[in-house]
Each structure stands twice: as C-alpha cells, then as structure tokens.
C-alpha cells in the first residue's frame, strides 16, 4: 500500500459515543491512526468542508484504504472484514447474531434518540432528563437481554463489537446521571471493560480534544 492509502484518519469528537466505538476497535486491532477533531458544540460538522466529506455530517468518519467510511456499524464491520485479527465478531452465526442484537439495541434504539440534534428539539432545561429517560428505557431491555447472553463480556466470554458499543453508552449514561448500578449485568460488564487498555484509551476522557476541566470533574 502507498503512504496515502495506508494513512488512517478518524474524524471524531471526544464525547461522541459513535466515535468512541471506532477508537476502541482501532485500538483493539492495533491499527495506527490519527484523529481530526470535529467540535460538535461549535457545529464544525455543519461546515461545507465537512459536508463534502460526510453526506450525513455526523461523526465518526474513517479515512482508510483510500475510502471515506461513515456509520460506525459499517466502519466496524469493514475493519472486521479487512483486519479480522484480533477478532471482534464471534465465528458462530448464532453468537454473531447476539452481537448484532446488542449493536441494534444501542445503535438504533438508544443512541440516536439522545444525540445532539434530537436533544436540540427539546428546551435546553429538559434535555438532560430526556437523554436520561431514553437511556433508562433502553437499558431496561438491554439488561434483560444481556442477562441471557453475557459471560464475562456482553456475548459470552469473547470481547466483541457488542462491548465496543456498550462501554461508551455507559459513559453517556453516567453523563446524564443514570445509575448504572441499577442494571447489574450492564454494570458488571462495564466494570470489566473499564480494566482494558483499548477501551480506556478510546474513552472520552483520554482524548486530546477533551477539555481539562471535564477530565478533572
Ligand atoms: N448512526 C451513526 C450515528 C452518528 C451520530 O449520531 N453521531 C453523533 C455523535 S455520536 C453526531 O455526529 N452528532 C452530531 C449532531 O447530532 O449534529 C453512527 O453510528 O455512526
């Protein structure tokens, strides 16, 4: 591969849970990358320059293999298909389906309902509670599902994309004062993931664009 196609660049925002998913997978697969920070609070995702790269104007976007990939699920599946080791999907179809159920519960049923553009539909003073309600509603079903399919991690004892989705979602829950302890299986897996370097290094508080005052809070 030439230099220009081997360079991997993640367009991300420190607090974006979808960006964290991709950071964690890149870390876990030991893929070297740099980040271009897109400040969502300053609406840098709405600039013409970013619109030219990302049709949806969301983060993350991953420049890899000469492609501009968007949508975290598609990015993670691409990484798995092109860089399968170490694996983030189990080999057996039934186990893979369980991973994709969790991806879907979080990625379709929770995260989109509490992202910036959705919360902006509510008065400023109601946004945090709206986000917390969405997360609590989603976590109650997720907890029941995880209690059936989890082992040490979300699906059995192998780390998977399900964990890559779960860890940042738990950080969003904490941000909105959702008591993760109320969901014992989620809490237990979150604790396990919090011990792992690829997850810690992908977390919001480890990012260069995270303001110091938030790191210390
Ligand atoms: N389905 C997309 C969702 C991406 C998404 O919602 N990104 C958020 C940050 S986590 C974003 O860019 N929000 C900007 C906005 O709402 O204007 C994915 O999984 O990548």
Automatic annotation (TrEMBL):
Organism classification: Eukaryota, Fungi, Fungi incertae sedis, Zoopagomycota, Kickxellomycotina
Domain GST C-terminal, chain residue ranges per copy: 92-217
Domain named GST N-terminal: residues: 6-87
Species for this entry: Smittium simulii
A single BP term in Gene Ontology: L-phenylalanine catabolic process
Alphabetized InterPro entries for the sequence: Glutathione-S-Trfase_C-like, Glutathione-S-Trfase_C_sf, Glutathione_S-Trfase, Glutathione_S-Trfase_N, GST_Zeta, Thioredoxin-like_sf
This protein's name: Maleylacetoacetate isomerase
MF term (GO), any: maleylacetoacetate isomerase activity
Cellular component, GO annotation: mitochondrion
Family as reported in the entry's similarity comment: Belongs to the GST superfamily. Zeta family.
Coiled-coil parts of chain: none
